[in-house]
């Protein structure tokens, strides 16, 4: 056996599931969107973390299949929620740079949106800045195509790559997600608090919405609110939760 073979089986046998982590408005606490996070429930090993299987999938290229699976699953989920009369919110999806190198990414997303009668604004793509470094030009041209369709693009894990600020010149991202390492150090070191406050200003100056990731404490939350961070995502508000639990939250809106 290999992890690789098991992953291929898992996709066919529907062993992959998605959880949703809400992103809330810092001022009102209202749910504005959610990030879809993949989970694998293996028949023998139980839950396998994406930290274990995503790198293996990237190595083999199978991550492209996973990306398509996640996009389609999210679109179908949004369709189902809409059918039930829920007021749906945009969902963000982590897409590997390898998917961007495949010509079919744009048409795959377009087809999934069409099949489920969804507006492109309901899907946001999260791209890590490290992924932009290696494949820059190809990725940027695909981002532009997606952007002109109406798909929103977020720059994920911001601040952890080698040339963070430079990436902001290459594409007009809709959303900047400040990496959780800054957020979690905010109430410990003055430097992290200052960096975070200034990243928020920088992003606003470039017309981006700012999301703080990994918010776990009220101190972090108050400080982010004071610094006009637009949205927060983190355990303080909610862990990634199964679709049925997210559905309950959509019903009450926060
Ligand atoms: O909750 P967490 O342990 O879910 O996720 C761990 C890592 O796996 C994160 O870096 C996250 O971006 C990544 N990840 C989670 N779901 C997906 C997915 O559907 N696709 C890709 N490419 N990465 C994912
Ligand atoms: O895509 P990205 O690499 O940003 O993945 C987000 C990761 O952060 C996921 O593994 C998710 O489960 C995790 N996460 C989300 N909220 C929190 C939090 O408040 N604290 C910590 N430590 N991790 C979080
Ligand atoms: Mn992410
Ligand atoms: Na991140």
UniProtKB/TrEMBL annotation:
Lineage, top-rank taxon, reads: Bacteria
* Domain spans labelled EAL: 1-254
Signal peptide extent: none
For this entry, the protein name equals: PAS domain S-box protein
């Amino acid at each position: 056996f290999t992890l690789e073979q098991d992953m291929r089986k898992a996709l066919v046998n529907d062993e992959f599931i998605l959880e949703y982590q809400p992103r809330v408005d810092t001022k009102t606490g209202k749910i504005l969107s959610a990030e879809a996070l993949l989970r694998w429930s293996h028949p023998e090993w139980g839950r396998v973390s994406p930290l274990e299987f995503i790198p293996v999938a990237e190595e083999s290229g199978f991550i492209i299949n996973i990306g398509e699976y996640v996009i389609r699953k999210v679109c179908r989920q949004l369709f189902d929620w809409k059918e039930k009369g829920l007021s749906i919110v945009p969902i963000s999806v982590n897409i590997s740079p390898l998917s961007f190198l495949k010509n079919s990414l744009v048409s795959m997303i377009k087809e999934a949106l069409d099949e489920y009668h969804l507006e492109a604004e309901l899907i946001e793509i999260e791209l890590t800045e490290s992924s932009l470094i290696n494949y820059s030009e190809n990725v940027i041209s695909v981002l532009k195509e997606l952007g002109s369709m109406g798909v929103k693009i977020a720059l994920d894990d911001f601040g952890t790559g080698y040339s963070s600020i430079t990436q902001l010149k290459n594409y007009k991202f809709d959303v900047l997600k400040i990496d959780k390492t800054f957020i979690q150090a905010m109430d410990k070191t003055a430097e992290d608090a200052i960096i975070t406050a200034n990243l928020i200003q920088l992003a606003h100056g470039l017309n981006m919405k700012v999301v703080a990731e990994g918010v776990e404490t009220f101190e972090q939350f108050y400080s982010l609110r004071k610094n006009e961070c637009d949205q927060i995502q983190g355990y303080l508000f909610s862990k990634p939760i199964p679709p049925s639990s997210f559905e309950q939250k959509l019903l009450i809106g926060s």
